[in-house]
């Protein structure tokens, strides 16, 4: 996993909503974005953190007490 020490607020909001169990489409509805945009942002966060799945990204943030 990456040595990222900080994530933008928007990424943390996204991960927080995923941690609550929302689907990408539900996250999109909450944030007023398209499902495609949310899926791209999820992929970008995963790439930035060096993880393969959104679940790993959520675990990464939880372990660091970011969400």
Could you name the ranges where pLDDT drops below 50 across 5 or more consecutive residues?
Answer: none
Number of helices: 4
Structural class: mainly alpha
Let me know the average pLDDT.
93
Output the radius of gyration. 11 Å
Order of helices and strands: HHHH
Task: Summarize the SSE layout with pairings.
Elements: H1 9-19, H2 24-31, H3 35-49, H4 54-63
Walkthrough of the structure:
The chain is an all-alpha fold. Helix 1 packs across helix 4 and helix 2 packs across helix 3. The longest helix is centred in the middle third of the chain and has 15 residues. It starts with 8 loop residues before the first helix and ends with a helix. The mean pLDDT is 93.
């Amino acid at each position: 996993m990456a040595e990222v020490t900080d994530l933008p607020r928007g990424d943390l909001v996204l991960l927080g909503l995923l941690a609550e169990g929302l689907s990408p489409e539900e996250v999109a509805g909450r944030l007023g974005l398209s499902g495609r945009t949310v899926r791209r942002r999820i992929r970008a966060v995963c790439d930035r953190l060096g993880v393969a799945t959104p679940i790993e990204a959520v675990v990464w943030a939880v372990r660091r007490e970011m969400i």
